[in-house]
Amino acid sequence: MKRGLVLEGGAMRGLWTAGITDVMMEHGIEPDGLIGVSAGAAFGCNYKSRQIGRAIRYNTRFAKDPRYSGVRSLLRSGDYFNAEFGYHIVPKQYDIFDDDAFNQNPMEFIVVCTDVETGKPVYKPLTKVTSDTYDWIRASASMPLMSRVIELEGRKLLDGGVGDSIPLEYFESMGYDRNLVILTQPMGYQKKHLKLMPLIRMTLRKYPNMIKAMNERHIMYNKELAYVEQAEKEGRCLVIRPDAKIPIGHISHNPDEMRNVYEMGRSVGERYIESIKDFYQI
Questions:
Q1: Read out DSSP for 122-136?
Q2: pLDDT digits (tens, 9 = 90+) for 151-183
Q3: From residue 184, how far is each of 12, 89, 124, 181, 249 by CA, in Å?
């Protein structure tokens, strides 16, 4: 049996997920592998480094810091979330990411990105911290219109949620047969066609396959939701989803709002912890 943890994205809704995963870490739950998309990757990496509370800590600390995120960063660099400060200075100087713990933890950790030239998902295993590790995580969480295209290992990359929003089927293909899936939208949610497609077409005009993937993302996402729900009915996965829409936008500079969402996640984590242990047969 291989125990997997699948974390979808959702930008700042990911703090709700971080509340759940922090509770899981506090209870000593160690999946064999974790696959994260976008915010699921950016916050999920703290699971492999076993750093409880890190995601909420640095997000609230730098919520209003223009070095971390904001329109100034977007206009100056093309990234709303400052790449150098957020992905290299913060984890090296201000809220240090535990590279050694990450390297020593045998948990498999995979981030999902989207290749803008093909419009297809890229699944990148991050076993040890290298010079590119933080940039792979950044690529997974780089939202179109809010981020520059990132070039890594000969690929041009953006937000993993465009290519594979909820990678349960991929993880099952890797042999993970007991998967906990944490979603950031409530039961019954269906994604709609993106209203910003005219702007997307102009901004990403060099990448027609990426434009096509974004134009059809709602179809892909809703099919994946149906796949997850069927797997849930068959007992192949345990799904945790919010009871209602998480009260935070894609972007937030309000530390109190962030803490509220995180605490909501913690409450759900405590509610589900015995079910998670039973499902994982711990």
A1: EEEE--S--TTHHHH
A2: 999 999 999 999 999 999 999 999 999 999 999
A3: 10, 28, 22, 10, 12
Write out pLDDT tens, residues 186-220: 999 999 999 999 999 999 999 999 999 999 999 99
139 and 187 Cβ atoms separated by less than 8 Å: no
Residue of 223, 261, 185, 190 whose CA lies nearest to 9: 185
Q: Which amino acid is at 8?
A: E
Distance CA 215, CA 197 (A): 7
Residues sharing a CB contact under 8 Å with residue 128, sequence separation 6 or more, in sequence order: 102, 103
CB 160 within 8 A of CB 123: no
Say if residue 73's pLDDT is above 90: no
Q: Say which residues have a Cβ less than 8 Å from residue 254's Cβ, sequence separation at least 6.
A: 63
Residue 265, CA distances (Å) to 95, 181, 213 in order: 22, 14, 31
Average pLDDT, the chain: 96
Please state, in angstroms and rounded to a whole number, the distance separating the CA atoms of residues 217 and 64: 31
pLDDT tens by residue, 41-56: 999 999 999 999 999 9
Amino acid making up residue 62: F
C-alpha–C-alpha distance, residues 216 and 211, integer Å = 9
